[in-house]
Structures are given as structure tokens and as C-alpha cells.
Write a structure and sequence with these properties.
rod-shaped, 74% helix, 175 residues, 8 helices
Length: 175
């Protein structure tokens, strides 16, 4: 193989590798992206519900029904246990579940600005993963073409083994 053809093929492999890195970063960014406000609201509601349930197990009216009332040892113990295990659940008992949810949503809203829904995230990751598989197969095909002409090409340490070891690159499915 002529030196210019080899240089061109090596440049092509570098372009594939750069693009592979870009796509991997895009996949990671999509996976790390904040969730949208609707998801935040759903998560907060579930969290507060679980906190309320937990607090109810520890904070019952029995604390007030004892001989010493809520200020007795049993009442202090129950309240302290409830508050340490489910502080938002205890607070929701006093100020209402909706008030706690609204405050938590208000606190989380800036982080959710520009967030993506789970469906959009999954679609982006799936699309980018397919693109990654295509790029990796193209890179491997270029490497094999050079190897057929006696060139030694070092593969990326993170190369997909299913692609590197495949006999027929057309049969390898993208992960």
C-alpha cells in the first residue's frame, strides 16, 4: 500500500476515533442530564409520601395518650425517632404534605431547568448508541483493511470486543 494511501487510511481511523469519543461523551451527557420538572414533581411526591408513611409508623397519637402525655419519655422517644427517620414526613404532619412538596419542588426547580424527560433521554441514548456501533464497525473495517496490507494498527483500549473479534462486521449488532 502506498505511503499516501496508508497516511490517508490512518487519518480516517483518527477521524473515526475522534467521532467515537464525541459520541461517547454525548451518551454520558444524556445519561447525566438533569430530569425535567415533571419528573422532579413525580419523584418529590413519591419521596414525601414515603416519608409520611414512615413518620406515621413512629409518630402516633399514642405519644399523647400516655400518662405523661407528649412530654413524657415515650413521647420524646417516638417524636425523636420519627423525626430522625423521616423528617419531611413529620413536617408534613404539621404543615401539610402539599407545602413540603411545593418547597422541595421549588428548591429542585433550578436544577431541572433545561432537563429532559425519560423518554427523550432514552431516545437520545439509543440513537447515539446505534451511531457509536456504526462508527466502531467502520473503524474496525478501516483497521482490517490496513492490516491486510501488512500495517500494524493498535486498537483502542476501550474498543468493543464483540466488534474487534467478529468475523463479519455486518453481522455485529450495536450494543
Amino acid at each position: 500500500m502506498a505511503k499516501t494511501a496508508t497516511k490517508s487510511a490512518l487519518d480516517e481511523i483518527e477521524v473515526f476515533r475522534d467521532r467515537i469519543n464525541e459520541v461517547r461523551e454525548a451518551i454520558e451527557a444524556a445519561e447525566r442530564a438533569p430530569v425535567d420538572l415533571a419528573t422532579v414533581k413525580e419523584r418529590v411526591a413519591g419521596f414525601v409520601d414515603s416519608q409520611v408513611d414512615e413518620a406515621r409508623e413512629w409518630l402516633g397519637v399514642s405519644a399523647f395518650a400516655g400518662r405523661q402525655g407528649a412530654m413524657g419519655h415515650l413521647g420524646d422517644l417516638q417524636f425523636g425517632s420519627a423525626f430522625s427517620r423521616a423528617p419531611f414526613g413529620v413536617l408534613a404532619q404539621f404543615v401539610g404534605r402539599e407545602a413540603i412538596q411545593n418547597k422541595l419542588i421549588e428548591m429542585a426547580a433550578p436544577s431541572a431547568a433545561g432537563g429532559v424527560g425519560e423518554g427523550e433521554r432514552m431516545a437520545t441514548v439509543a440513537s447515539r448508541t446505534r451511531e457509536l456501533g456504526e462508527l466502531e464497525r467502520s473503524e474496525e473495517a478501516a483497521i482490517r483493511a490496513l492490516e491486510e496490507h501488512g500495517e500494524v494498527i493498535i486498537r483502542r483500549p476501550d474498543a468493543n470486543p464483540a466488534i474487534v473479534l467478529a468475523r463479519d462486521l455486518n453481522l455485529v449488532e450495536a450494543e
